[in-house]
Amino acid sequence: MGNNLEEIREKRKEWEERVLKPSLERFAFKESPTKFYTPADIPDFDFLDKVGFPGRYPFTAGTYATYPYIPAPRRGVQVAPGLRRASTYSGYGTPEDCRDYYKEMQKRGQRSGPNLALDLPTQCGYDSDNPVVRGEAGKTGVAIDTLRDFEVLFEPFQGEMDLDRIATNITINAPANILMAMYFALAEKRGISLDKLVATPQNDILKEFIARGTYIFPPRPSMRMMRDSIVFFTKYCPRINITSIGGYHMREAGATREQDLGWSMAILEAYLQEGVNAGLEVDSFVPRFSVNAFGGDMEFFQEIAFQRAARRMWAKIIKEKFGAKNERSMLLRQSLMYAHMGYYNCAKQRPLNNLTRSVVGGMASALCGGPPACYPPYDEALGLGWSLEASQLSEDASRILQYEAKLTAVSDPLAGSYYVEHLTDEIEEAGWKELEKVESMGGIVAAIENGYVQRELAKGAYERQKKLGSGELLRVGVNCFVGESEIEVEINRSVPYPYDPKRREEAEEKQIRNLKEVKGKRDNGAVARLLGELKEKAKKEDENLIPHFIECAKAYVTEEEMCDVLREVFGEYQGGTF
Amino acid sequence: MNEKRKIRVLMAKPGLDGHDQGAKVLTLGLRDEGMETIYTGIRQSPEKIVQAAIQEDVDVLGLSCLSGAHKYLFPKIVELLREKGVEDVLLIGGGIIPPEDIPFLKEKGISEIFGPGTAISEIADYIRKSVARKWGAE
């Protein structure tokens, strides 16, 4: 770089003595509140090795050669014409309620496929009529019990928006293969072959044991279900993303930055190994691994460095540890969310401040190689579902960053910054260290089984809360700047929300009736036979259960009926302590 | 009443919601505030929670729900407690509870709702004051 590092180190000492020190004395500081970085902080920096070009190994500068978001101001998600994307995460009530919501959104211009939020009974493998789940049906998302429900829900998605023309996302983990089987059965009924489907089930079961909690079966049989997804989707549905791995759930629940990184990579390794053990070439299936989101915090530069480190680490693991040859296999393909503020940082107090926070996250996202997405809308902490006003401002904030501030004009603009490169190296190193720790226990499944991750997570969450209590961690309007001289800022919502609260309240009763009707009309002899066969197949470790799930779905076997058979064979995860 | 007895708290997660950071943090935090705390773990039915509250003879039952099912689950737990003749347990709630639901929950017997951003010390003070009042009345 032209400068001798020794000379820089010497000059630095001189600067500290002659310039910095008097300044600290003048302001009565014990230590400097600001730092300064020089080339001496990245002595081994090698551009091609550490950064490279966007879309080329090691992908530090970006996943793609260019930004896939089109700079043409129009409504909706601004993506390139060659891209099929699902819409915003949404869903509530009965399939009828949700269908009507989608019809309404289509009237307002939505042209993309659904990004389905499911209720908790569906996510945990229970039908709406099970007394154990009373009060939950249709709350966090739409209730799905049988194929009938998908038939109703997808009514607005026909013709120009049929299943072979949209992308569908489903946030489903433990019973992902069952829900996907229902989707496949629906496609078959519409005469659409599976290879034309574009979809992303979340299908990241391991993080459910660590955070979020929608597990059903113990970790090992859950991994068998994962193997089935990898093998079946690779063979029959080459355009379906096998999994959407998420680190941010763990971060929200208390993981530190390095744990988020290390554990996410350990999860990636565990899924990769399942595919390899099933006899697949790494390059045949890894390109269909996607990532939901990593990270999430208000620390701006740390989160930018984190994303760059994550891309580099991901690529190295796939190339160096698993021997992938195709560069496409090494891409960390993330959805809309890259760096972001961390949903857990949303405050209920003076909630409009969350908009400011989300803009900080959106800027970090744009500067780390992602879209300038300002998530979440500011009313995240106020209740389930965002108001249309909050969503509008969130979308506008992203547009302002893109069109007015032009933050997306250059890929990885912080590449080469002494500070950011130093930080990227530091975070990557900490991530490797945590990964090695987990590997030394036998991998992430073993680290879940022995309770290490759960204990660390609870500890991390409590540490974070203690720091908020002591003021070591500051949240404006929450634990500081709350005195009498501050004023409250009220928010008003005037646009009615497209979810109908009355319908949400009545959804459970209605869905129980829907299910009763299905059970009355279907061939119950066939259902009993199929469930008997499922039990036998489930007992055979090598059997891929997805083809049979599709048969069950077509006969209107319910989700819980299938899950109950599997519970009998696989057992149930009892939940970890901490 | 023995004033030195530690306040006993059961932190519970009714329903299927798996977001239990708050419940775990309070379990640890209230312990450090000098209380005896027990955590049920996630996915507990109202019946199991009530049974645990009675068995453990707790002074306080903390309910956490972020799934929107609080309007059914919280009153159901109060109802089951009353059926068993339990009247003296202090009930507090937290999670993602829309402000408009709070009067309903209070009317059903939940003493206070603590939302995101509440300091542990604030909850601990509330518990100590409320329990002291109950003990004083005995």
Protein model, in words:
The complex is a heterodimer of chains A (578) and B (138). Among the domains of chain A are: 5-41, no CATH class; 202-481, TIM Barrel. With 578 residues, chain A is mainly α. In chain A, helix 3 (95-107) links the parallel strand 1 and strand 2 (113-116). Chain A has 21 helices and six strands. Chain B has 138 residues and is an alpha/beta fold. Chain B has a single domain (8-137), classed as Rossmann fold. Chain B has a five-stranded parallel β-sheet with strand order 2-1-3-4-5, sandwiched between helices. In chain B, helix 2 packs across helix 3 (70-83). The longest helix of chain B is centred in the C-terminal third of the chain and has 18 residues, at 120-137. Chain B is globular and about 40 Å long. The mean pLDDT of chain B is 93. Classes of the chains: A mainly alpha (578), B alpha/beta (138). Chain A binds chain B through residues 120-121, 123-124, 126, 132-136, 139-140, 208, 211-214, 252-254, 344, 346-349, 381-384, 458, 461-462, 465-466, 468-469, 475, 478-479, 575-578, and chain B through 15-21, 24-25, 28-29, 39, 41-43, 45, 67-69, 71-73, 76, 96-99, 115-117, 119-121.
The total count of strands of chain A amounts to: 6
CATH topology of chain B: Rossmann fold
Largest interchain contact: A-B, 43 and 33 residues
Largest sheet of chain A: 4 strands, parallel
Name the poorly predicted regions of chain B: none
Gyration radius of chain B, rounded:
14 Å
Class from secondary-structure proportions of chain B: alpha/beta
Query: How many angstroms does the end-to-end distance of chain B come to?
Result: 8 Å
CATH superfamily caption of the domain at 202-481 in chain A: Methylmalonyl-CoA mutase
Architecture of the domain at 202-481 in chain A in CATH? Alpha-Beta Barrel
Name the helix and strand elements of chain B from N-terminus to C-terminus, one letter apiece: EHEHEHEHEH
What oligomeric arrangement do these chains adopt? heterodimer
Helix run count of chain A: 21
Average pLDDT level of chain A: 93
Question: What integer value in Å does the Rg of chain A equal?
Answer: 25 Å
Q: What is the CATH level 1 assignment of chain B?
A: Alpha Beta
Secondary structure: helix percent of chain B: 40-55%
